[in-house]
Inverse folding.
């Protein structure tokens, strides 16, 4: 299943049901820092992997980890894809762009991201995160120094 949007995770979730909606509801809860709501959508043994191989197993640790990287961060969802596996798991891909502010308050936008979720039994089992934020920061620093 694939569909294109270009909206916040919360608005995108209204267009779906099942595993894609679950992944988008999780992203929306994390974006508004509703850690209790996000925590209800993940399994007790969920694993999260972020750029640079950073691993987290706890929703609170995810929020704390991003607080040092961003002053604020949000997502525009451009596309969602899913495929069901024979083992009862569904893999969901959410693609789009990040926007927000760096720790120094400088705004950013247009940074590509992909989130890959494995969902089974109505909960998120894994999330793998890829984005170009490090490259965007390096480019901004190079522009500032020239």
């Amino acid at each position: 299943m694939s569909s294109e949007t270009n909206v916040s995770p919360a608005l995108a979730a209204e267009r779906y049901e099942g595993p894609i909606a679950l992944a988008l509801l999780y992203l929306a809860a994390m974006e508004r820092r509703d850690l209790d709501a996000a925590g209800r959508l993940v399994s007790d043994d969920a694993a999260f992997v972020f750029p640079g191989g950073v691993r987290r197993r706890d929703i609170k640790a995810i929020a704390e980890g991003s607080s040092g990287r961003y002053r604020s961060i949000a997502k525009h969802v451009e596309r969602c894809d899913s495929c069901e596996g024979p083992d009862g798991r569904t893999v969901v891909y959410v693609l789009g762009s990040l926007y927000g502010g760096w720790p120094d308050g400088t705004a950013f936008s247009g940074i590509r991201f992909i989130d890959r979720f494995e969902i089974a039994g109505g909960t998120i089992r894994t999330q793998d995160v890829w984005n170009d934020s490090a490259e965007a920061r390096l480019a901004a620093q190079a522009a500032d120094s020239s």
Summary: The two ends are 45 Å apart (CA to CA).
